[in-house]
Amino acid sequence: MHALKFRWVKNHKGQYVDGHERDDVVRYRQEVFLPAWYRMEGRMRAWTGDNMDNLEELVDLINQTGKRLVVWFHDESIFYVHDRRPSQWVADGVSPTPYAKGEGPSMMVADFVSADYGWLRSKDGLESARVIFRPGKNRDGYFTNEEILAQLAKAMDILERDYPDEDHVFVFDNATTHLKRAEDAISARKMSRNTPAVGKNWGIEVNLRNAAGEVVYDEKRKPKKTKIKMANGFFADGTPQDFYFGMETERPGVFKGMAVILKERGHDITYTD
Q: Per its UniProt entry, which superkingdom is the organism in (predicted)?
């Protein structure tokens, strides 16, 4: 092997790349995030080494709205059953207790934190938006944008009730679970081409929710489904276009189908099966 210019070495761990310097990430940071932050900064509390412990005496930097602005950062942390220090103090003549291999089951904790108040809590300290989640197929499932929306709704309820004299901004990282279109958003990929047959209708399949906005699960921990109408569109001149037949027609409330929608917009829908 040496003659073939090979050498015997240990495999190195791959270098972690977080993508912070990708062109699209840099562009978003410089052209969207930072300008937005600078616009809000004048309304935020500011601390120096001399006033860290004197929150009540801080001078507010507030614009014409008359409200201070509080920024809440979304934080997610994963903990494993076998998390431990690799080294410990042991007495002479005593062997350290063997530990189980692998990371073991995980638990995720998601919460909101601000420089102003710390973790998001109600004023009486009895209510929070913290979520403790056990990820896994046979556990709590997976923390998707559905759970993110439910957690955010809970946080906003607390802030609207207990902190109404301040404006609040939530900051999330760009994980895929933090990006979601509206459930009824227009999507040609989901539309049926033709008007449904008599006695049938078409809608977007979404997770069923209870009165509190929480996803309803069946006995196998799978989300129950229901169907909702797709949002209406607009013509080129801005006039609203209904995607479902009106109540005064022969098919009230039935989805028109992509062909009818395009025809109403003046497109040639000639096609062959």
A: Eukaryota
- Under a CB-based contact definition with an 8 Å cutoff, are residues 82 and 99 in contact? yes
Residues 6+ apart with CB under 8 A from 228: 183, 184, 203, 204, 206
Judge whether residue 18 has pLDDT over 70: no
Q: How many residues does the chain have?
A: 273
Q: E-strand spans in 81-215? A: 106-114, 118-119, 131-133, 166-171, 204-207
Closest by CA position to 167, among listed 65, 74, 47, 73: 65
Q: Are residues 223 and 263 in the same domain?
A: yes
CA angle 224, 225, 231 (to 5 degrees): 150
Domain encompassing residue 268? 181-273
Of 157, 178, 199, the position where a domain reaches its end is: 178
pLDDT, tens digit, 9 for 90 and up, residues 197-225 = 998 999 998 888 888 777 888 888 788 99
CA distance 225 to 228: 10
- Indicate if 173 and 109 belong to the same structural domain: yes
